[in-house]
User: Which sequence fits this backbone?
C-alpha cells in the first residue's frame, strides 16, 4: 500500500468509526528491512495494510497493536535484529504504535435552530455530528449507537422527545440529553416510569441539557450543550448529569423549551 492509499484508508476508518492501530518506524540504526517513516495499519481482527518489515518483527507488532486497541494507549516497541527475530542484520528498529480512536458520534434528533447550532458546534469540537429530521426512520441510528454515542433530543413535540429518550435508553449510549425545562423533565420522568424504566435508568437522561452559562440564543445553548458533552468525554465521568449542579434550574417555560418548540 502506497503512502497516499494508506492515508486515504485512515480517513475512511475515521469516517466509519472502525478502530485500528497505526504502526510507524520512527528510528533505525544499522541494517534494517524498513527505514524511518515506514507505516502499517493493524485492524482489530489482526489484518494489516502496509508493512514495517515482515517476519517476527511484524508478528510482534500485530500482537502489541491488539493490546494498544484494548488499552487505548500508544506505546513504542524496540527491536534488535538478531536470529530471535528471524534476522542476522544486527540493526535496531524503534516502532511507534498509535491507536486510531474512532471519533465519538453525536446524534441530534430534531433539526430546528438549536439542533442545527449543536451540529455545527459538535463538529468543530471533534464529534462526528449527524443532524436527523425527527420524521426520519430512527431505528438504524439506535441500532448503531455504542458507548461513544452522544444523543441530543430536541424535537418539536414533548411526546416525541419522551418516546425518543426511551429508545435511547435501550442503547449503551454514553450521554443522553433532552432539551427542555425542569417541568418538562418531571413529565418525562413520569412517562419513562410508566414505560417500565427504573430510577437509575431514568437518571441517565440529562435534562435540561447543557451547562449553566445562562444561555439564551440557539448558538449559546449549543455551546452549553457541547461543553457538557466535552466534560463527559474528557473527565471519563458517568453519564448521569441530572442530579448534580452542572446546570441551572430553568423556569417552567424557559428559553430552551421555547426555542426548541419554535425551531
Assistant:
Amino acid at each position: 500500500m502506497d503512502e497516499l492509499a494508506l492515508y486515504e484508508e485512515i480517513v475512511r476508518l475515521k469516517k466509519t468509526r472502525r478502530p485500528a492501530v497505526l504502526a510507524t518506524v520512527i528510528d533505525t540504526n544499522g541494517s534494517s528491512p524498513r527505514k524511518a517513516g515506514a507505516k502499517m495499519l493493524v485492524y482489530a481482527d489482526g489484518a494489516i495494510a502496509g508493512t514495517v518489515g515482515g517476519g517476527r518483527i511484524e508478528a510482534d507488532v500485530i500482537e502489541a497493536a491488539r493490546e494498544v486497541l484494548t488499552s487505548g494507549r500508544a506505546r513504542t516497541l524496540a527491536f534488535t535484529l538478531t536470529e530471535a527475530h528471524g534476522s542476522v542484520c544486527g540493526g535496531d528498529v524503534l516502532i511507534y504504535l498509535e491507536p486510531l480512536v474512532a471519533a465519538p458520534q453525536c446524534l441530534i434528533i430534531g433539526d430546528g435552530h438549536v439542533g442545527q447550532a449543536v451540529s455545527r458546534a459538535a463538529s468543530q469540537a471533534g464529534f462526528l455530528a449527524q443532524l436527523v429530521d425527527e420524521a426520519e426512520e430512527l431505528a438504524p441510528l439506535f441500532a448503531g449507537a455504542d458507548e461513544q454515542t452522544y444523543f441530543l433530543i430536541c424535537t418539536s413535540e414533548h411526546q416525541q422527545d419522551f418516546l425518543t429518550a426511551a429508545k435511547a435508553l435501550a442503547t449503551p449510549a454514553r450521554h443522553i440529553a433532552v432539551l427542555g425545562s425542569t417541568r418538562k423533565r418531571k413529565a418525562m420522568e413520569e412517562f419513562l416510569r410508566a414505560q417500565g424504566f427504573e430510577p437509575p435508568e431514568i437518571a441517565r437522561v440529562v435534562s435540561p441539557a447543557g451547562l449553566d452559562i445562562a444561555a439564551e440564543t440557539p448558538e449559546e445553548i449549543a455551546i452549553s450543550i457541547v461543553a457538557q458533552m466535552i466534560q463527559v468525554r474528557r473527565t471519563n465521568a458517568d453519564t448521569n448529569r441530572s442530579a448534580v449542579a452542572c446546570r441551572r434550574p430553568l423556569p417552567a417555560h424557559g428559553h430552551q423549551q421555547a426555542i426548541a418548540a419554535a425551531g
User: Anything to note?
Assistant: The chain has two domains: 3-100, 105-262. The radius of gyration is 23 Å. Residues 237-263 have pLDDT under 50 and may be disordered.
